[in-house]
Amino acid sequence: MDVYTPAAKRVIIPLWNLKDGHRYGEILKAYETSQYWPAEKLRELQWERLKDLLQHAYLFSPFYRRRFEELRLTPEEIKSWEDFEIIPILTKEEIKSNLQEMLATNIPRGKLIHKRTGGSTGVPLHLYVDKRGMDFKRAATIRHNRWSGYERGDKIAMIWGNPDIYKSRKAFLRNLLVERAIFLDTLRMDEESMRAFVSEIRSFKPRYLLGHARSIYIFARFMESEGIGGIEFASVISTAMALSEKERQTMKRVFCCEVFDRYGCEETSLIASECEKHNGLHLNAEGVYVEVVKEGKSGKNSSGGILLTDLTNYGMPIIRYRVEDVGLLSESLCPCGRGLPLLQEVGGRTSDFIVTPEGRLVFGISVLDNLTIHIPGFKQVQIIQEEIDHLHFKIVKGQGYSEESVRIFKRELPSYFGQKMRYSWEFVDEIPKESSGKYRFTICKVKNPFY
Ligand SMILES: [Zn+2]
Question: What is the residue range of 421's domain?
């Protein structure tokens, strides 16, 4: 281990947290203990947090006050988990059209952190989280990271879209001292960038690798096909989309370590992740209440739509939110001894890479996160690649659409897909889901050279 790592963990990171006002230390300590509580005790904690949240939402969120009034109900009358299911499911559309009324009136707007996401369906969504809620999310992420061995301050390699470390001096410094990450940009993956990343890994020597499942797999396949060896990690954390067994086995083989699958979303942050037993994904139960419903009813032993209730975000209460992913909750306990319930399967966000005529790979989810959700009036977009030099876009118009929207879109395209790509688009009323019920942001029918 280098000499900086212990210093970063003991001194630099605590100081940086102090500077940024992050106060997750106590929460993390509590989380380290509660993960081993019996399932029943965790359920009680969730119930207490849920009751507090419902009370808060009723008192301070005009949207939820209206919702309760329409039900002719007060939070006190919700006395069981079954009662809780009376509360209607919250959709993305509702968040979009009621954003201001959802925010809590007792927390100043300036104290809320703004987030934007394309989520699992590509529909842009604005969200707010209060600072205390963010501390809960940080604590959960750190706890779940620790299961893979990774601690803040450890060197890490990341395969991600458009890393923001070069966007400001502060971000650059923060990365240098605190995050200690090197990046392979998923908006620009080609032989050259992957080769450069290999050299960077050799000299920087990160112990961990984190990224989108598909992107890590592509990088692993590239190394294998080029006969590049000798790059080993202590563990790989795979996130942002479902991880297939083939992808997992390839990563294990190439990087000579275990792979820790993770499920999260921008709306509530970390939802579940694998422990060292790899026996399903342990829920972040203290922070998020997860339901799986089929045709509106809670489903045991069958997969269905995932509903999320964020137990710790008081700035913008999120209750029974349909995230548009599917999952299966497990009744069994994990041999690791943690009482946190297990999520057996998750499916949702799926996305391909686009291949450019120059042979570069552009990851669909990264295009979504960095381009299409930022275009005003584009409600939803799907990219279909039938030929190497042609992309077809299906666009659903939303509020705020004008000719300017298309102008911005056309202007930005070459910076993502190069100069040789041709484009066409059509406006549609909706984008159909796959037969599996999943929505695919990008569909690539051209052979990916690294697959
Ligand atoms: Zn476990």
Answer: 353-444
